[in-house]
Amino acid sequence: MAAYRTTIRDTSDTTSYRLPSMAGVAKGRGRLPEESGAFHIDLMLAAQRCMDPLSLLNELYERVSQYLPVEGFSWRQEHDEVSTPFFRKDASGHCVLHNLELTQADVRLGKLAVCAERSLSEEESAWMLRVAQSIAFALRNTLLFQKALFEANQDPLTGLKNRRVFDSEIAREQARFVRYNIKSSLVVMDLNGLKSINDTWGHDVGDRAIRLFADGLEQILRDTDHAFRFGGDEFCAILPATNLYGAKKMAERLDSWLAAHELSLPSGERITVRTAFGLAETEKNSDEKDWFRRADQSLYHNKLKHKRTAA
Question: What is the CATH number of the domain that holds 132?
Fold first, then answer.
């Protein structure tokens, strides 16, 4: 089963998912809240502030752990699964798992696994189920929101970030340079001969070439670097805290990787995916548009030079 990754929120970097505060949270001793209505209202108000299911589960943990000896929660719907940091999936030691089926008006809204220090009584289980049911739709909706956000910022063919995210990230990197005066580099790339591949072997092979290139780009980049697909055969990479020499070395590593990973066809033919590069680094008295323009011009000149050499 695939585990849901909250890191998809990274695209806009506006907020991060909320981790539970362990300070001052005493484990419950089986005393349920006297005013259950106030508890539910407080939880539902918190649910309205949550933008992702993990934050919502953490809000649930903070409140429920005051009344029940729970150690964590895990919510699963179809192929997506979200767990709080201290949830133990395998019942072991002092952990007792309770599985709750969440439904609203015959709509299935997933299953909530409760990891507790002991078995819950019937009264506690019934109360826990009512609490979970009250936020079931909120859990489903936050997951759908995160998926929509992820898809809006991701290129569907390669899985790389798209032009929309690039525009935000290059402006952010230019602002970092203005503030800290640490140079970063931009690499603009396109695939040589993609049209010829499409015309000769078909667009499905062309798509494979694009995916292979994206795989190579992700393989050779550092965790702090950012890769993007503009569309068609155009790609970009932002290399923070990297000068032109480092950017050139990155381009050379990608060339070597592509040369070592040819595209194999059922006919036995092999295609070497090749690319052209344009490089530019941040400069004073400039902005992100000029930064991109200089990298794009570098790409144009390198392609022109390559054509003249080939001729």
Answer: 3.30.450
Q: Are residues 136 and 91 in the same domain?
A: yes
Calculated CA dihedral for residues 212, 215, 217, 219, nearest 10 degrees: -140
Residues 110 and 218 in one domain: no
Mark whether 178 and 141 lie in a shared domain.
no
Q: Which of 152, 187, 204 is the last residue of a domain?
A: 152
List the structure tokens of 266: 């059922």
CA distances from 262 to 154, 210, 265 (A): 25, 12, 10
Q: Is the domain of 27 the same as that of 102?
A: yes
- φ, ψ dihedrals at 287, nearest 5°: -135, 180
What's the CA dihedral at 298, 301, 302, 308 to 10 degrees? 180
Per-residue pLDDT of the chain (311 residues; tens, 9 = 90+): 333 333 333 434 434 445 555 444 455 555 888 777 889 889 999 999 999 999 999 999 999 999 999 999 999 999 899 999 888 776 555 789 999 999 888 889 999 999 999 999 999 999 999 999 999 999 999 999 999 988 899 999 999 999 999 999 999 999 999 999 999 999 999 999 899 999 999 999 999 999 999 999 999 999 999 999 998 899 999 999 999 999 999 999 999 999 999 999 999 999 999 999 999 999 999 999 999 999 999 999 998 876 644 43
Please tell me what DSSP assigns to residue 5: -
For residue 275, the cross-strand partners are 191
CA gap 288, 282 in Å, rounded: 8
The pTM score is 0.69
